[in-house]
Amino acid sequence: MTDNPMERIANALERISPPPAPAPDFDIADAFVWHPGALAAQDELTPVTKVNRVDITLLQGIDRARRTLIENTERFAKGFPANNALLWGSRGMGKSSLVKAAHAKINEGPNRLMLVEVLRDDIPTMGRLLKIVRSNPERRFVLFCDDLSFDKDDAHYKSLKAALDGGVEGRPENALFYATSNRRHLMPRDMIENERQTAINPTEATEEKVSLSDRFGLWLGFHACDQSQYLEMIRGYCDAYEIEISDDELRAEAIEWRQTRGSVSGRVAWQFVQDLAGRRGVALD
User: Fold this and answer.
1) Fewest CB atoms less than 10 Å from the CB: which of 102, 120, 149, 279?
2) Helix intervals (H) in 93-214
3) Which residues lie across from 34 on neighbouring strands?
4) N- to C-terminal Cα distance for the chain?
5) C-alpha span between 253 and 236 (Å, rounded)
């Protein structure tokens, strides 16, 4: 404990307002998770050295969405204009997998992108993240929010609208926003209908809610797959991971698996492959 009054005051001020957090080292990884602190000085971009993703060639039944997202991301990586993208539709059909796989595909080339995952509850702090992005103009960032949606009385959507528009400064040219959602308009229908019924001007209230998805220039729809696509997904995984199984055996076991789940999707296909690989002693590296 120092007896110097000025030093004690300085230490107290530092505790109240700590120094800025050190700049993240973007050379150690190309994927990060945004962890905002209680104060801006406590914000952190945590590096992810091994991203949980599958090879883009294994994503079946979404050819148009895959091609469109890769083209959009590649233009952005090269420094050309590109659109924010909303990937919406049926659960388990590869929306988030496509974002992560497209990022890996682009980074195979000379133009390196940073992928930053932002949790839905951290959207109000997006302005602080954009400051970090803006201060690193030599790099390009894809900000990614998975499973994005808003419920009644949830005002986070206003923060997202502000982040997408960028306010007076505008959105940084080196930032792009990708989001996945089961809802095309990001909000439940009853929430929008309730606004129509209770607002003084129902049309304006509804537009306020629906206009959020309009901030995404690119909409990519993901629809439920049929049984043949489901089986093609499984066969693709089995071939890629060298799991030996005959077509007849695969069909019988895969159909039984999906019947026990009561649904058919890319996620169900992958869960079956994990079970099959485990039973046959095959590692899924």
Assistant:
1) 279
2) 95-106, 126-134, 156-165, 189-198, 202-214
3) 45
4) 54
5) 15
- The contacts of residue 22 (CB under 8 Å, 6+ apart) are none
Strands 44-47 vs 31-35: parallel, antiparallel or unpaired: antiparallel
Residue 219, token pair as written in the block: 């909409």
CA angle, 69 then 75 then 77, to 5°: 100
> Judging by beta carbons within 10 Å of its beta carbon (0-12, 13-18, 19+), is residue 28 exposed, middle or buried?
exposed
The structure's pTM equals 0.82
* DSSP letters spanning 19-51: PPPPPP-TTS-SEEEEE--SSGGG-EEEE-SS-
User: φ, ψ for residue 199 (rounded to 5)?
Assistant: -80, 150
Fold of 31-222: Rossmann fold (3.40.50)
- Mean pLDDT (whole number) for 142-167: 76
Domain coordinates in residue numbering, the chain = 31-222, 227-280
What distance in Å separates the CA atoms of residue 223 and residue 55, rounded to the nearest whole number? 21
Q: 3-state DSSP call for residue 176?
A: strand
Task: Report whether 102 contacts 57 (CB < 8 A).
Answer: no
- Interacting residues of 95 by C-beta distance below 8 A, sequence separation 6+: 87, 88, 89, 180, 222
User: Which pLDDT tens digit goes with each residue over 28-86?
Assistant: 999 999 999 888 788 999 999 999 998 999 998 899 999 999 999 999 999 999 999 99
| Three-class SS state of 151 | coil
Phi then psi for residue 116, to 5 deg, are -120, 115
